[in-house]
């Protein structure tokens, strides 16, 4: 990853933060975009304090206008983009579909799916200029399987899975590779806040851990390792792939 310039959306915490730190350690310049600028700047500061190069950007990925401004800034300041991790996402409404607020569904689709489509449009445009680049989208086990009470979330992630495969076919001869990681349950701030890992409820915690054959949740650093691999030249003949990093949760 030496001298590569890589954008990470949702880079201020969780998987995005771990990915930024991992890529910086491999020599990449990391551009950290997050709806919370303070969080993005904190990660960027951590990178620079470790001797790396980073920049922080405030961006609401659900806004096409915000994304347009972000990529205009990247193009103006850096002039190129070698890699991108479209990681920003939300869990959204949890519960039976008939009880879910339509506005909550719309917000979830905007953040989890539309932002990935819009980001790839901008990223592919930048990468085609150099005839090279790699994109990794953060999908989910619920982009491969279904789950009761997560219908909208699952729909958004199935969309990411399909978009990843289709965009990979469109760019296969342009020197651009597009893949996705599909994490299982991971110990991130978002998951803790959404109640996926209730540390105060050990029975619920153990039940969710037991869904994974490895009998535990994943760590953000483990997902970051999969992303780093897909971005690297070690994955030079891999495109359109959905990489499960889930402790065996989804076995074909």
From TrEMBL:
A Pfam family it matches: adh_short_C2
Record keyword Oxidoreductase present: yes
SUPFAM superfamilies: NAD(P)-binding Rossmann-fold domains
Superkingdom to which the source organism belongs: Bacteria
UniProt-listed InterPro entries: NAD(P)-bd_dom_sf (IPR036291), SDR_fam (IPR002347)
Keywords: Oxidoreductase
Family listed: Belongs to the short-chain dehydrogenases/reductases (SDR) family.
Name of the protein described by the UniProt record: SDR family oxidoreductase
């Amino acid at each position: 990853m030496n001298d590569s310039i890589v954008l990470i959306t949702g880079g201020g915490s969780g998987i995005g933060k771990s990915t930024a730190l991992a890529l910086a350690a491999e020599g990449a310049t990391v551009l950290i975009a997050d709806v919370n600028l303070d969080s993005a700047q904190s990660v960027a500061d951590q990178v620079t304090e470790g001797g790396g190069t980073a920049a922080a950007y405030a961006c609401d990925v659900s806004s096409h206008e915000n994304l347009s401004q972000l990529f205009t800034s990247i193009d103006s300041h850096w002039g190129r983009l070698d890699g991108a991790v479209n990681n920003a996402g939300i869990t959204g409404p949890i519960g039976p579909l008939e009880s879910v607020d339509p506005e909550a569904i719309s917000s979830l689709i905007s953040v989890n799916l539309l932002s990935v489509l819009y980001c790839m449009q901008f990223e592919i445009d930048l990468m085609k200029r150099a005839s090279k680049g790699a994109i990794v989208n953060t999908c989910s086990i619920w982009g491969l399987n279904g789950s009761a009470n997560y219908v909208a979330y699952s729909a958004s992630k199935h969309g990411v899975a399909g978009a990843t495969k289709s965009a990979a076919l469109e760019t296969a001869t342009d020197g651009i590779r597009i893949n996705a990681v599909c994490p299982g349950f991971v110990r991130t701030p978002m998951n803790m806040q959404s109640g996926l890992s209730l540390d105060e409820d050990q029975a619920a915690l153990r039940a969710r851990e037991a869904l994974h054959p490895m009998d535990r949740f994943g760590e953000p650093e483990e997902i970051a390792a999969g992303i780093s691999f897909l971005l690297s030249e070690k994955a030079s003949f891999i495109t359109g792939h959905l990489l499960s990093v889930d402790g065996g949760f989804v076995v074909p």
